């Protein structure tokens, strides 16, 4: 569970699941409220975003080359 006033135990995993919309709605809201005020988690989220985007690009490439 994400508490608004402190970092989650596993911010990378939370950030990845947040970006893939796999968090529970209340976790999503709590994490949104937290990273807005936490530079550590904002950085983690930025790094996770690049990773998720890269995964999406890779998946897209696989789909289009496998035709
Ligand atoms: Zn944090």
Q: Classify the helix fraction into a percent range.
A: over 70%
- Proportion of β residues? under 5%
Bound ligands, named by name, code or SMILES: zinc ion
Output the number of helix runs. 3
Q: Overall mean pLDDT score?
A: 90
Let me know the largest β-sheet. Answer: none
Architecture overview:
The protein has 67 residues and is mainly alpha-helical. The chain has one domain (11-65). 70% of the residues lie in helices and 0% in strands. The chain has helices at 11-19, 25-35, 39-65. Helix 1 packs across helix 3. It is elongated and about 50 Å long. The mean pLDDT is 90. The structure holds zinc ion (ZN).
Topology:
Elements: H1 11-19, H2 25-35, H3 39-65
Helix pairs in contact: 1-3
Zinc ion binds at residues 7, 34, 38, 40-41.
Brief summary:
The protein is mainly alpha-helical. It is 70% helix and 0% strand. The protein has helices at residues 11-19, 25-35, 39-65.
Name the descriptors:
binds zinc ion, mainly alpha, 67 residues
